[in-house]
Known about the structure:
By secondary structure, the chain is α/β, with parallel strands linked by helices.
Amino acid sequence: MADAQVIAFDTEFVSEFTYRPDLCLLQVAADGHLWVVDPHAIASIDEFWNALCQGNHVTIVHAGREEFRFCRRAVGRVPANWFDVQLAAGLIGLEYPTSYGKLLTRLLNRKLPKGETRTDWRRRPLSQAQLEYALQDVVHLEPLYQQLSARLQKLGRRSWLDDENARWQQDVIDSDERERWRRVSGTSGLGPRALLAVKYLWQWREEQAEQRDCIPKRVLRDDLIVELARRGRAEVHQIRAIRGMERGDLKKQMAAISDCLVRAEKASADELPKTDRTSIPAQVPVMAQFLNTALASIARQQDLAPGIVGTVQDLRDLIAYHLGLWPNGEELPLLARGWRAGVVGKQIEDLLDGRLGIRIRDPLADEPLSFVKLDP
C-alpha cells in the first residue's frame, strides 16, 4: 500500500457481545489490488493502520465511524486524507445518511448483492462466497469517490467536505474521550444529586464491562441505573427490593452499587453536575419544530441533504443564540458557523426577525414552499 494513490477500506465487525466491537474482517482496495485480511489470524494489524495514517493517498470509506475508531484505538493516529462517500453525498443533495447500496444504484447504476447479509463474521472458515461478498463493500468505493469528488468540485464545495471531515472526526474523538454518562436514557427530570449517582453508577458499569469484555447494559440496564439514582437509597436491602436487581451476578455487586449511591449522597455541592444549557423558554422548541420544515426546504433548494445541514436541536441552539440565551464562552451553534451560516443560518435568522416570510407557492410542487422578503 505504500505507493498507492487511493486506499479504500471497510470492516466487518460484531458489537453485540463484547465491550468494544470485535473486528472480524478487513477489506482493502488500493490502486487496482484487492485484499481481505483476517484479524483473528494475525497477532497485530498495526502495520496496516500505520500505513493508512501516512503518505499522500486518499482514504475512502462509507459511513466510516467504526473504521476511524479502530484505527485510532490501534495506533493513536487518524487515517490520511479521509473521504467518506456518505458525507460527500449529503453535500451534493443526495439523501443523508444513505446506504452504500443506494449510492451504488444512484451514481453507478449497480446493485449490491444480498446473499450474505446475515453472516456471522466471527465464524471460521469463511466461504469464497462470503469473501467475495465482503469485497463488494470496497471494490466500488473509488468510482464513487471519483464521481462525488467531481460534483463537489463543480459546486465549489470541496472545502465544505474538508470542514465536515474535521468536525466529524473531532466529534468522534470527543465522544471516545469524554464520559458519556449523560446518554443514559431516562435521566430527564432527575435532580443534580440523582444525576451524580447516575454518573458514579455509569462509571462503575463501564469498569465492570471492560473487565468482563461484555456490553455495559449486560452489567446493569439503564432503567435500573435511573431507578437506583432516583430512589437514592444506599442500604443493600433496599437495593435488592428493586425489581430487576435479583439477578445472581448483581447480588455479588451490591456493596459496590451501594458505594456509588453513598458517594453521591455525601458529595459536596461543588461536585454536583452542572446543566449544559441556560433554561430555554417553551416557545423555542415550538419555533424549532416549525422552522425545521423551512430548513429542509432551504437545504433542498441549495442541493444539500437536510440531514447533513442540521437537526431540530441545532435549530433550537440557533434560536437560543439569536435570542441572547446562548451560554457565554461556548462555541457558536452549528448553524451559525462555517458554510451553514451563509447557506441556511442567515435565512433562519431573517425568518426569526420577520425580514423573511414563508408562503406556499404550489401545493403539488416538489418544493411547495417559497421565501419572500418582507417590509421592515
